[in-house]
Every structure is written in structure tokens, then in C-alpha cells.
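Possible regression after last week's pipeline update?

I re-ran a chain I had predicted before the update to compare outputs. Posting the input and the new output here so someone can diff against the archived version. Not blocking, just want to make sure nothing changed silently.
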Amino acid sequence: MKLGEVVTTIPTLGFNVETVSYKNISFTVWDVGGQDRIRPLWRHYYEDTDGVIYVVDTADRNRIETARKEFLGILSEDALRDAAVLVFANKQDLPKALSVAEVAEALDLRNIRQKDWHVQGSVATSGDGLYEGLDWLSKTMTSRV
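New output (post-update):
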């Protein structure tokens, strides 16, 4: 994730870690791969997590149920009980992409009352929506301090 520049990416195999500074906040970002065999390893990265960014491919309607199942599994983890949750509804520029409201419904967010959460439409390749999402996350996290 590089703010202010478009980068070409490939699916993450394993994990990548980098530090991103945004509005005087330093985020240590763990980008964990989403492949089936890697998902059981996610929980090793949950300790001391203040915020979760979950990216949904809104153009892939066939995998939204898998995204919902994994998302709800993440939210049930005790180590993440106090983490703010930002969902990027990504690929909003593509035809037939799920809307932000459809993503919120698909992830059953209306029933999540014990966490601060926000769904932000985004287009990662152009950066659309990324700053708005990080604004929400940074404000939410700093208001808790």
C-alpha cells in the first residue's frame, strides 16, 4: 500500500508488512494472503491490533459468501474484540460491482454492535476511497486514546 501512487500488485502469498504514515499516525500494515491454506495463519497477526482493514472484491459476487464467513470468523477472535473495522468495498469501478450497501448487508454488519465499523467504497488501482477510509480509521483509533 503506497499512498499517493498507483502500484501494480499480485495476490499476496504469505504476508507482507510495511509501515504507512498518514496524518501523523504510523500504521504497521500486515497484508496477509487470502488463499485457503493461508487463512488459518491469520490469527498469528491479531495480537495488539487496534484496527482491521478487510478488503472485499465487490466484482466477484461468487466469493462474497466466503468473504462473509471469513470476516465473521475474524470478528469473533478475542484478540480483536476492541479493534476498529474498516471494510474496503474494492473495485467499485467495475460493472456489476456490489454497492457499499450491498457489501454491508452481505457481511451482516447491521448486527455488529460491539465494534466500530465502516464500509468505504474504493478503487485501489486509482486510490479512490483509500484516503477517506484511512481518515475514518485514524479518527476512530485516535478517539479511543
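Follow-up from reviewer: compared with the archived run. The CA atoms of residues 9 and 117 lie 26 Å apart. Marking as no regression found.
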